[in-house]
């Protein structure tokens, strides 16, 4: 692998910026992923040139550096998609290339073509300094609220008949986007607005899809020093009052419904630890946390896998946790059966998982929440709400609207 510190050695990538390299990669049909981890400034761009996307088992500790993405409907015997990390570029906060890890070398034909296209796009951008607006006229679907509220009523009825304790129902919201829409620019805007989220943009050429998101929820993390982390995140409240001002965290009061909803997710994680007879974990919370325009309740779990000699813990827990009760329900199987039959659409990659694997020795997989799919001129926003026996259909609809707004209010503005 060629690892170039651009501050000390010339590289053909020097002077190029993240948006032009992303656009060049997409134009050449290379699968690619752009991401920024929570509480970090660095942006990373991974480009798969040789083998593109391969299917594999998520044995995280055995994989080469890449970017993983999985659909919601996945079980432990199925493969997931892995974008191979042929080139991984790290950008500074001002979007300048800081380091380049290049498996192919700078003389590789496709690498030089990538740089040439990015340079051309950079020059075109200078010539065309006009900013384009993103127009998103809403697709008329007046029945969607009625349909969603009816599914909530059915779920509450099933819960009261003891079919399950909780189910997470979701819906979509479709809008159109113009040809001038610039996904990487939208990504950069989300990075600024949501510093606490995992912000990502993934190009899947075979599906002809782009997925953009700002997820607040860790599924599994395992660092190069052996620390495993996961979390339970549930309960939702608007973080701003009617005047648009941020409500102080300590003024937030949680109701019984939200507390029980989040406690179910925590108990689910503890049950997964019990299945593998793991007792050596720390549990912190629940506490109120801000995620975008919403407050949630969160409990953090942490394990030292080095002291336990358990390097494969993240792989084991991934299979046990997904889909968590925060995106599926409790118990898992009956709630999964219910939402599969009632929701009436394919969730695809929404509420699946995604993130970088073995990049600098770290694996960070997040639940694919607060996400939008761009395909064939249509932007599809996804959002869900946890349904318990105390749920009110109208309030659950409003919750999904607030979650859609997390992205919509940022990327629907003129750039």
TrEMBL record:
<dbReference type="InterPro" id="IPR005801">
    <property type="entry name" value="ADC_synthase"/>
</dbReference>
<dbReference type="InterPro" id="IPR015890">
    <property type="entry name" value="Chorismate_C"/>
</dbReference>
<protein>
    <submittedName>
        <fullName>Chorismate-binding protein</fullName>
    </submittedName>
</protein>
<feature type="domain" description="Chorismate-utilising enzyme C-terminal">
    <location>
        <begin position="145"/>
        <end position="403"/>
    </location>
</feature>
<dbReference type="Pfam" id="PF00425">
    <property type="entry name" value="Chorismate_bind"/>
</dbReference>
């Amino acid at each position: 692998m060629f690892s170039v510190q651009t501050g000390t050695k010339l590289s053909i990538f020097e002077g190029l910026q993240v948006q032009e390299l992303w656009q060049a990669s997409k134009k050449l049909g290379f699968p690619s992923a752009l991401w920024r981890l929570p509480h970090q400034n660095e942006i990373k761009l991974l480009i798969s040139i040789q083998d593109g996307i391969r299917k594999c088992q998520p044995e995280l500790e055995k994989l080469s550096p890449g970017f993983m993405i999985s659909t919601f409907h996945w079980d432990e015997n199925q493969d997931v998609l892995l974008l191979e990390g042929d080139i991984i570029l790290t950008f500074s906060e001002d979007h300048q290339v800081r380091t380049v890890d290049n498996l192919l070398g700078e003389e590789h034909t496709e690498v030089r073509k990538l740089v040439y296209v990015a340079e051309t796009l950079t020059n075109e951008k200078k010539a065309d300094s006009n900013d384009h607006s993103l127009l998103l006229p809403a697709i008329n679907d007046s029945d969607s609220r009625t349909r969603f509220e009816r599914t909530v009523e059915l779920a509450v009825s099933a819960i009261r008949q003891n079919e399950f304790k909780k189910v997470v129902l979701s819906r979509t919201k479709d809008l159109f986007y113009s040809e001038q829409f610039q996904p990487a620019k939208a990504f950069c805007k989300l990075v600024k607005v949501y510093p606490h989220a995992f912000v990502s943009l993934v190009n899947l050429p075979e599906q002809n899809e782009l997925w953009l998101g700002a997820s607040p929820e860790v599924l599994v993390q395992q660092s190069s020093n052996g620390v495993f982390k996961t979390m339970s995140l549930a309960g939702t409240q608007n973080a701003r009052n009617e005047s648009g001002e941020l409500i102080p965290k300590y003024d937030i009061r949680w109701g019984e419904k939200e507390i029980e909803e989040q406690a179910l997710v925590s108990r689910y994680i503890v049950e997964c630890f019990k299945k593998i007879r793991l007792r050596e974990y720390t549990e912190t919370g629940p506490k109120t946390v801000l995620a975008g325009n919403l407050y949630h309740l969160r409990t953090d779990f942490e394990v030292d896998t080095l002291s336990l000699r358990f390097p494969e813990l993240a792989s084991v827990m991934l299979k046990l946790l997904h889909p968590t009760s925060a995106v599926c329900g409790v118990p898992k199987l009956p709630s999964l059966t219910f939402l599969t039959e009632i929701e009436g659409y394919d969730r695809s990659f929404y509420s699946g998982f995604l993130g970088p694997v073995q990049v600098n020795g770290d694996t960070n997989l997040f639940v694919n929440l607060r996400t939008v799919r761009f395909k064939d001129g249509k932007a599809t926003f996804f959002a869900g709400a946890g349904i318990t026996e105390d749920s009110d259909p109208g309030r659950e609809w409003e919750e999904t609207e607030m979650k859609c707004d997390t992205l919509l209010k940022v990327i629907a503005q003129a750039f």
